[in-house]
Amino acid sequence: GIGEIADWHFYMEPGIYTLTLTVTDSAGAGTTATYEYAVMYDPAGKRILAAVQSVDETTTMHLGVNVSLDKKTGMPKGHVRFNADGTGFADGFDATEIAYVLIFGDWGVVTGTGTIGGEGEYQFLISVLDQSEQGGVDTFRVILWGDEGIAFDTQSGDDFAALPTTQPTDGDIKVR
């Protein structure tokens, strides 16, 4: 048959959610549809600051983030820079556009587009977790992708919505 359905849900916590809708008819036949991802964020969140370095046996990564929501327009603004010696990103990734600044308590996410060494067009997702003031450890994640797919990911194989796990060896992350 043909018909319409309507429903709503209130999220108690900011986060990135997968939505699943299951519809069953009177004869017991049904179907399920999934939508990835719905982003529920805290509009009171204002700024993400990160100046960190992470060094392991093969790579030295530097991440600099200073992004916020403009108080008058609510639009994102700021700067994102990333480089990773020992990889194809030693020349550095620079954001040319900040699309979203999302704050989920002590978790911040920044997305947009940029270039590597001033060339190409890549999308990015930077995810940071500010837990050092609560006795935890700050963590970050950097994902860069272009037309050819994922170009760099500090958590290769993880879902895009996964919390960041890379611990800086130096520096600090602030989500306010």
Molecular structure report:
There is one protein chain. The protein contains no helices and eleven strands. The protein has strands at residues 15-24, 30-40, 47-55, 60-69, 76-85, 89-104, 107-116, 119-129, 139-146, 149-153, 170-175. The strands form two sheets. A nine-stranded antiparallel sheet has the order 10-9-8-7-6-5-4-3-11, with no helix packed on it. A hairpin with a 3-residue loop joins β5 and β6.
Outline of this structure?
With 176 residues, the chain is mainly beta. Helices cover 0% and strands 60% of the residues.
Blueprint (SSEs and pairs):
Elements (H helix, E strand, L loop, with lengths): L14 E10 L5 E11 L6 E9 L4 E10 L6 E10 L3 E16 L2 E10 L2 E11 L9 E8 L2 E5 L16 E6 L1
Antiparallel strand pairs: 1-2, 3-4, 3-11, 4-5, 5-6, 6-7, 7-8, 8-9, 9-10
Structural features:
176 residues; 9-stranded antiparallel β-sheet
Instruction: Name the shape in a single word.
Output: globular
Q: Pick out the low-confidence regions.
A: none
Secondary structure: number of strands = 11
User: What is the SS-derived class?
Assistant: mainly beta
- Tell me the span between the first and last alpha carbons: 50 Å
Helix count, DSSP H or I runs of 4 or more residues = 0
> Strands of the biggest beta sheet: in what spatial order?
10-9-8-7-6-5-4-3-11
